[in-house]
Amino acid sequence: MSMKKLLVVLGMMVLFAIILLSSCRPPELEGVVINMNQGLYDKAYDLAKEAVQKYPTNAEAWYLLGDLHARHNKFAEMSEAFDKSLAIGPNFKPQIDQERGKYFAENYNDALKSYYTPARNETDEVKKKELFQKAAEKFVFAHLCMPNRMEPLAPMSVSFLEYGDTATAEKYILKAIDMNPKNDTLIVQVGDFYYRTKQEEKAKQMYEKALAANPNNADANLAMGEIYTNRQEWDKAMEMFLKAMELQPNNPAIPNNIGIILYNNEKYEEAIPYMKKTIELESDNQNAHEVLSLCFMQAGQKYNEKFTETENPEFQQMGMKFFDEALPFLQDAVVKFPNSSLLHNNLGVCYAQKGMVDKAKEEFEIQKQLEGTP
Fold first, then answer.
1. What's the CA gap between 332 and 27, in Å, rounded?
2. 187 within 8 A of 206, measured Cβ to Cβ
3. What domains sit in the chain, N to C, each tagged with a CATH number?
4. What is the pLDDT along the chain (374 residues), one digit of tens a residue?
5. Which of 84, 30, 93 minimizes the C-alpha distance to 58?
């Protein structure tokens, strides 16, 4: 046979194959494909629904219906249709995997960028709630597209929690941990969920579980410290906070918590370096400035009382040292936080200790004005 005749025969065979394949596709499905190619998705959608009813064992019919479900944002139905197509046969698995991945990425990225991240920065509570609700919807779409991907689960849980659906939030956060039971970071997020919903004992169990998986999880140590603080188990709280501080030396919340525990237990001198560290890391923290000022005042007063009891001048000198250190600190603090009556009061005390009566009166007068007292 000549080359020319061979090419003619091969061409006829390809044409025959195309005709044969086309003839194997039911006319309803052919109509679905034609309408999709023309962008007539609503019409294609109706035809696809008819096709799966008429040809329930046709893998392509279910694949096309799944595609059209997705185009109408019906991702649960999309997933079900794709599963039925794959149950019939693997012919459309590459296309299905591609479609799942495509819609997962679109919905997940949209949830994060358009709604979830803006919601976390939103100050208007009504708008914030609306953004979280939209984020939750998009995260659910992403999850339906690829149920075995865990990325959407934690932020989806937060989104549901933020707009008030606690039950759904819990469902998805527990699903996340079921998918990855040894992920200590995820376990901490479950603990955070329970802590935020005032289920402290459940939160504690999760944080303990996280620490069993990774004793160096700083967030779990910090969270446990807060729980022990709530329960006034000071020694345990200190142990947890000190460990957390080793792991996160630049987190201002940790030295702040340690300083407050020491202050509440009347260990004023010990509290001072931790409150100084807090301010070093977070210079605009008014509460830290106020607590540090109280530490100076109480430490100085403590030594003054010892001087009164013993008449030992060393105690008087030690007490004055704290007032001397507090004075420039408070002079700067009242400039930074002019509406803090506590800071003005403590500055007045410092002036009085130094014998600067007029300046002390000025500060006490400002304090009274801020507190609205005569």
1. 83
2. yes
3. 250-374 (1.25.40.10)
4. 454 444 344 444 433 333 334 446 788 889 999 999 999 999 999 999 999 999 999 999 999 999 999 999 999 999 999 999 999 999 999 999 999 999 999 999 999 999 999 999 999 999 999 999 999 999 999 999 999 999 999 999 999 999 889 999 999 989 988 998 889 998 998 899 999 989 999 999 999 999 999 999 999 999 999 999 999 999 999 999 999 999 999 999 999 999 999 999 999 999 999 999 999 999 999 999 999 999 999 999 999 988 899 989 898 899 899 999 999 999 999 999 999 999 999 999 999 999 999 999 999 999 999 998 76
5. 84
Interior angle at CA 103, CA 128 and CA 161, nearest 5: 30
Give SS3 for 287: helix
The residue whose two tokens read 């019919």 is 61
What one-character-per-residue DSSP string does 249-308 give? Answer: TT-THHHHHHHHHHHHTT-HHHHHHHHHHHHHH-TT-HHHHHHHHHHHHHHHHHHHHHHH
Residue showing tokens 């008819």: 50
- C-alpha distances in angstroms, 190 versus 197, 203, 226, 270, 308? 11, 7, 16, 34, 54
Q: Determine how many CB atoms are found less than 10 A away from the CB of residue 234.
A: 15
What are the E-state strand segments in 194-249? none
Number of other residues whose CB lies within 10 A of the CB of residue 242: 14
In the structure encoding, which two tokens stand for residue 244, read together? 């957390």
